C-alpha cells in the first residue's frame, strides 16, 4: 500500500465514513484499504451470513 494511495483515499472518505468521526482520517483510510485488499486477495474469506442473519437496510442495531 503506497502513501499516495492512502492519502488519496483519506481525502475521499465517503459521507458515512466521515460520520464515523475518526480523529485520524489517514489511519481510517489505511484500515479501509487494508480490508479491501484482504477481500480482493481472498474473496472466500469474506464472512458469509444467511439472509436471516443480515441486517435490514437502514438497521444499525446489528
Automatic annotation (TrEMBL):
Residues 1-19, 35-52 have a biased composition (Basic and acidic residues). Residues 1-62 are annotated as: Disordered. This is Uncharacterized protein. It comes from Paractinoplanes rhizophilus.
